[in-house]
Amino acid sequence: MSLVDPLSAEQERLLSQGRSTLRDLPWRRTRDPWSVLVSEVMLQQTQAARVVQRWERFLELWPTPIDCASAPLGDVLREWQGLGYPRRARSLWLAARFCVDQHGGALPDTLDGLLALPGVGAYTARAVMAFAFERDIGVVETNIARVLARRAGDRLTPSAAQSAADALVPAQRSWEWNQMLMDLGAHRCRPEPRCDGCPMQCRWRDAGWPDPDPADGSAGVSRRQARFAGSDRQLRGRVLAALSATSPLTVESLELQLVGPGCDRDRLARVLSSLAFDELLSIRDDSVRLP
Q1: pLDDT by residue (tens digit) across 74-109?
Q2: For this structure, is 141 an active site residue?
Q3: Structure pTM?
Q4: Which domain covers residue 240, as residue numbers?
C-alpha cells in the first residue's frame, strides 16, 4: 500500500503536459547544492539564455564553496562581468566563506541554515531545498507567482502565495513539480497569457479574465525595471568593467574613460562611493581597485 497521497487531476495534468515541454537547462541536470545555488543567484534578474555559459564557466573555476571562498573577491567580480548586479557576486562569495567557516565547506540542508547564508532569501533557500535536496517544498518566483495569483483569482500576499505553493506540491515530486510550474509561467501564463490547453484550475480564466489581472501587484510578481541606459546602475557596471580590465586605476584615469555626456565628475564620485560602500571596490588616496 502506497504511503504517498494520490495525485489530483490538476497535478496529473501539469506533470503529464510538463514532461514534453520542460526546458533542457544544464542546472536541471545536477542535484549538487552549490551548483544549484550558483544558478539561482545568477538567474536573479538575468535571462536563462545569458546564464548558461557563465554558469558552466563559473563552476569550472570554483566547483565547490571551498574553491570560491579561497578566491579573491576581485576575481569573482571579474568573472561576473556582464551578468549585472555585482552585489550578487559578493553575496555568493560571502556565502561560500560562510559555508567553509560554519559547515565544513558544504551547503546546509535545512531552510533555516540556507536562510542564514549571506544574500540568500526566501525564494533562493527554497529553490535549493527543492532543486538540490528534493524536499517537498514550494518555490515562489515571478513566473510561479503569476500562476498562483491567477489560479486563486485574487492578488496574494507573500504568506498566501507561499502557502498556496506549498499546498500544491505532490509528495516526493517537488523537483519536477516546481520546474514544470515555473516553465508554465514562463511560456504559457505570461503577462499576456496563452490559456488554451492550460492544465491549471484557474479562477481568473474561468471568470472570463476580468480586470484587474490578479497577478498585477501580487506578491512575487516582478515589476518593470527602471530604465538601464544612462542609469547609475549602468555607470556602476562601467566602473567595474574598467577595473576588471586594469586594476588599480587612478580616479583621474577613470574620469578620462567615463566622464562625458550624461556623466560628470560629481556623478562618478557618487557612484564610486556607492561601490565602495557595497565593498565592491576600495579607494585609497587616488587609487581605485577591486577588492
Answers
A1: 999 999 998 988 999 999 999 999 999 999 999 999
A2: no
A3: 0.90
A4: 232-289
